[in-house]
Specification:
Lambda Exonuclease, Chain A, 6 helices, alpha/beta, globular
Length: 202
């Protein structure tokens, strides 16, 4: 990472026009960040290292930031894993919520993390890892930057596996037919009456 000098940042601590010449001087592979962002990252890292469960993941890691190429019923697939121990995969997630242990399930619902966990599990098992529940290292970007290590219930993971297989079958079917429109095209859809129960005024 390349940290921009404080005097070149905006009043809110971000990179602005004053930093353009500094940015131009950075190496092509540099990751430019503001001092504000650097402080948040350092505070997040400190909290991750304060959590023994997160430290156990990191200390047991045998592989980090690697790809797995695999097939499901002849369909080529690929996933990129943040880290793996001999027994399970782990994945870093950020959240703006201050207490990820209480709210991370909402992020799972919003961003379909259960599908990611199931998809990675399928690839991981083909690559030789045992069946496991991915551990999400959820780190908050909000003070005091708490970290929680979360795992999906086994029942949710099993449902997600079935959904992943169904989605891959659908993808193969759509490719064969070159059909990319939504499933409801070609149908007349009757709206649910419950949407009109309130506020009609007649």
């Amino acid at each position: 990472m390349a940290v921009c000098p404080l005097h070149l940042t905006t009043a809110t601590g971000q990179l602005g026009k004053a930093a353009d010449s500094w940015l131009a001087d950075q190496a092509p592979d540099a990751i430019p960040i503001s001092p504000t962002t650097e402080k948040v990252l350092r505070d997040q890292t400190k909290q991750i290292l304060e959590n023994p469960a997160a430290v156990d993941c990191l200390m047991a890691a045998t592989h980090t930031e690697f790809n797995i190429a695999f097939e499901v019923d002849g369909l080529p697939c690929k996933c990129r894993v943040d880290g793996a121990t001999p027994d399970f995969f782990y994945d870093f997630k950020t959240t703006r919520d201050a207490d990820p242990d209480e709210t991370f399930h909402r992020a799972c619902l919003d961003f379909k993390y259960e599908l990611q966990a199931a998809f990675y599990l399928i690839g991981g098992m083909q690559a030789g890892w045992p069946r496991h529940r991915m551990q999400f290292i959820a780190t908050s970007t909000t003070y005091p930057y708490h970290c929680a290590v979360m795992a999906l219930p086994e029942s949710v993971l099993q449902e997600a596996e079935a959904r992943v297989y169904a989605l891959l079958r659908e993808l193969e079917h759509r490719r064969a037919l070159d059909w990319w429109t939504p499933h409801y095209y070609g149908k007349v859809i009757e709206m649910n009456a419950k949407y009109f129960q309130k506020g009609r005024g007649w």
